[in-house]
Amino acid sequence: MRLFPGLLSIAVALSAGLLLLAVAISPFLTPAWVAFEQDRAEAAAWTSFSPVELRTATDAILSDLVAGPPAFDVTIRGAPVLTDAERSHMRDVRAVFTGFFTAAGAGLVLLVIARLATRPSGAWSRDRFLGAVRAGATGLAVVIAVAGVIAAVAFDAAFEVFHQLFFAAGTYNFDPTRDRLVQLFPEVFWSETTMAVGGLTIALSLVVVVLTTRGLRRAATPTAAAERAVA
Fold it and tell me: Is 172 helix (H, G, I), strand (E, B) or coil?
């Protein structure tokens, strides 16, 4: 690690950003948030489901997405809620989420190892670790802020670009007049959830920036410098 402090700093910064984003996304994968946003998006009216049916269908889909297995075969009134194409898309969505959270988990492991590997003096110090974490948090906040501005003025275009990046063409286009997937999760659901995720991500990033900055300032005091010299 000491041979590659620059590369390690980059890896730590990227890992910190990934982990922060994963933490910010997690609350929005809960039944409580989904139910709240579905009420705002009037999903019951779109689907013609009763409140109980809406919760049954949504909670089953959410469970398959988060915990698996990815069957997405919930039925209401004896009929499947999702078509084969919709189930296939949800399996693609789960694959993207699995890849992302796996990467975030690997980032957490790297952060722990990198922190344990710090030394009071040398190329890879606690200061360098904190600086890399701060850089990752700062970069994430900037990226999310820019993305939020773009989404605010051109959400449909941003949503389309996102799907083009992660899903095969033709696998994510559904008709809100007949396809349950987009009736259960209308555009209002996605636009408000996206903004909420962005807001929480920026807030968490700023908290990390403040904490790491304080840590770096404490490390720069004469007492801390003397302690490092003795060590």
Answer: coil
Q: Please say whether the beta carbons of 28 and 193 come within 8 A.
A: yes
Q: Could you give the CA distance from residue 12 to residue 107 in angstroms, rounded to a whole number?
A: 8
**Which residue reads 């110090």 in tokens?**
125
List of residues 6+ apart from 125 with CB closer than 8 A = 118, 119, 228
User: In terms of Cα–Cα distance, which of 28, 200, 18 is closest to 105?
Assistant: 18
Beta strands in the chain (DSSP E): 75-76, 79-80
Q: Which residues have CB under 8 Å from 117's CB, separation 6+?
A: 1, 124
Give rounded-to-5 percent helix, strand, coil for the chain.
75, 5, 20
- Per the structure block, which two tokens stand in for 202? 């920026």
- The whole-model pTM stands at 0.88
76, β-bridge pairs: 79
Kindly tell me the burial class for residue 127, based on how many C-beta atoms sit within 10 Å of its own C-beta (0-12, 13-18, 19 or more). Answer: middle
Greatest CA span in the chain, whole angstroms?
A: 74
The answer to whether 180 and 82 have CB atoms below 8 angstroms apart is yes
What is the C-alpha to C-alpha distance for residues 79 and 85, in angstroms, rounded to an integer? 15
**Tens of pLDDT along 73-102?**
999 999 999 999 999 999 999 999 999 999
Cα angle 229, 110, 21; round to 5: 115
